[in-house]
C-alpha cells in the first residue's frame, strides 16, 4: 500500500530557516542516526495530527553524540537556572514584589498570570526581553516558574527575594522563592555534553519509532537565539572534532 502523507510547509521546511545565519556550509552535512527516545514532544518536535500523523523534529536543534550508541540526541549543555515563586496564605488582594540582582519589580498582582510576572521582570533594567521565561500560574493557587535564558542561559544565578508586605486578606500571606535547578555546567556525561552540530532540516518520523535519520550541520553560521532550543554560545566550552560553527 502506498503511504502518502500531506506535508506541512513552514519556514523550517524550506531554505528560509531563521536560525541559519548564512548559506555558507549548508552542504557540509553528514547523515546521522537520531535516538528518538531522547527527544521530547513540544520541545524538540511537533506531534502529528489528523492531517499529518507523523511527528516533525525541528530544524536547528543543537545535537550531541551519545558515546555508547553513536546515535545523536539533544545537546545537553550547561543547565539553566530555574526558580519558583509560590504564594501561601491565600491572599484575596494586593500585590507583591520580586527583587533580583539589586533591582525590584513594580507591584505584581496577588492573582498574577505567568505573563504578568514576566512583564514585571522584563521591566527591570538588568533583564532584557528573552532573558527570563515564565510559566505556570496563575497565583495564588498555582506556582509560577521562572527560567533564566538569553544572556543568563546556563549560568548560576542569585536567588530572587520577595516582599509580601502589600498582600491583603487570607491568613498571613507570604511569597516563597525556591531554586529548583541551579544554573551551571552540564550534568550530562553520556557524550551529549559536547556540541556536535545542528539538525540541518526538519525530520519526520512515525509515532512509536525509536530512531530516524537526519542531516547534521557541522560547519556554518548560526543565530543561536533563533534555534528551537536557544542557548548562549559563550557557554559552549567544547565541541566535537571537526565542528566549526560561528554564532551571531
What does this structure look like?
This protein is mainly β and 248 residues long. It folds into two domains: 29-77 and 188-247, Virus Head Decoration Protein, Chain: A (Beta Barrel); 82-181. Helix content is 4%, strand content 33%. A hairpin with a 6-residue loop joins strand 4 and strand 5. Residues 1-14 have low confidence and may be disordered.
Quick structural overview:
The protein has 248 residues and is mainly beta.
Helix/sheet category: mainly beta
**Major β-sheet annotation:** 5 strands, antiparallel
| Number of beta-strand segments | 19
In the CATH hierarchy, the architecture of the largest domain is Beta Barrel
Oligomeric state as shown? single chain
CATH topology of the largest domain: Virus Head Decoration Protein, Chain: A
Average pLDDT rating: 87
Spatially, the strands of the biggest sheet line up as 1-17-15-4-5
Number of domains: 2
How large a portion of the residues is in β-strands, by DSSP E? 25-35%
Q: What share of the residues lie within helices?
A: under 10%
- The coarse silhouette is elongated
Helix/strand order: EEEEEEEEEHEEEEEEEEEE
List the uncertain runs.
Answer: 1-14
Alpha plus pi helix count: 1
C-alpha Rg, in Å? 21 Å
Cα-to-Cα separation, first versus last residue: 47 Å
CATH class of the largest domain: Mainly Beta
